[in-house]
Amino acid sequence: VNPDNGSLLLTVDNAGEVDVWGFEAEIVARPTAGLDLNVGLGYLDNEYQTLAASTGYPITNKLPSAPKWTLNAGAQYAFDLGNERGQLTIRGDVNYRSRTFNDPQNTVAIAQEGYALVNARLTWDSADENWQVSTFVLNLTDKEYFSSAESIPAFGIRNAVYGRPREWGVSVT
């Protein structure tokens, strides 16, 4: 806040130096004909090495939008319907993100706790592969989560944008 007239001053400056490291691993397998499995795991750590005093938050804070753990897993099974009726594929997947801060200050009120999203899909492909019809459900458990959030204490404002609720649909290709 400008001390002369009380207006808001917006500044952009480097906060300091941060070390970021982690790993990702992914496994894809087809244990039997028609069955596909996939699993992915990610780990991310970040630590400020230096931090400008003007930031107003401690060097122990974590970067925003940087979950420590991410996990995804999926399975699908495709089988032939026989007699030139095409193929049916059933798929399910889950995606997990651990706790995430939405601002550099690590404001607890707008932090997103760890959550998982579950999706499902059923797809029919015509025998000549010219047509495909799918029905799907995204966020099957209707999990409520922040896709972003901000806190502006000078104005007493906290704002959050929620992720998409459960949605379903049909597609024809």
Summarize the structure in words.
With 173 residues, this protein is mainly beta. Helices cover 0% and strands 54% of the residues. It contains no helices and nine strands. The strands form two sheets. It has a seven-stranded antiparallel β-sheet with strand order 1-2-3-4-5-6-9, with no helix packed on it. Strand 7 and strand 8 (157-162) form a beta hairpin. It is elongated and about 80 Å long. The N and C termini lie far apart (55 Å).
Keywords summarizing the entry:
173 residues; 9 strands; mainly beta; seven-stranded antiparallel β-sheet; two-stranded antiparallel ribbon
How does the SSE layout of this entry go?
Layout: E1 16-32, E2 35-51, E3 69-80, E4 87-97, E5 115-125, E6 132-138, E7 146-152, E8 157-162, E9 167-172
Main beta-sheet strand count, sense and barrel state: 7 strands, antiparallel
Shape: elongated
Question: Roughly what is the average pLDDT, rounded to an integer?
Answer: 92
Percentage of helical residues? under 10%
Low-confidence parts, pLDDT < 50 over ≥5 residues? Answer: none
Order of helices and strands: EEEEEEEEE
Strand order of the largest sheet: 1-2-3-4-5-6-9
- How many distinct beta strands? 9
The assigned structural class equals: mainly beta
Oligomer: single chain
Q: What is the number of helical segments per DSSP (H or I, 4+ residues)?
A: 0
